[in-house]
Model the fold of this input.
Amino acid sequence: MLLIEQRRNIKTNMTKETFQKIILKIQLINTKDHEFYKLGIDLSQYSEDHMIIIQELMEEVFNKEQLGWIEWYLYERESLLKKGKPNKAWKKVGRKKVEICYDIDSLWETVCEAGQQADFDNRLGG
Done:
């Protein structure tokens, strides 16, 4: 049991390149599923198992806040039905609002910052 608990606490350092590939592939899968659905073909019963596997693996690498940003970028950033402008996310830097998560590179930066904050909070016992 101790070995299992130790494994749960291991976080893999993912490279930016690997992160970009994963995000692009997930976006491609979602786009293909949507295109098939528009043709009357529902592949969700097949793709859902793959997405569950991907989610489980992502949970091993990222904390809840990081996953929240990744999921927002993948599933909520696009406007409904992919019409109109994408939704935006902001953070405060001093008195200025700065847009975040507007592309994969800025998502990566936000995810890294969320990981650093979580590491800091864990060291402080919070």
Q: What stands out?
A: Confidence is low (pLDDT under 50) at residues 1-10. The beta strands are 89-93, 96-100. The radius of gyration is 17 Å. Residues 16-123 form one domain.
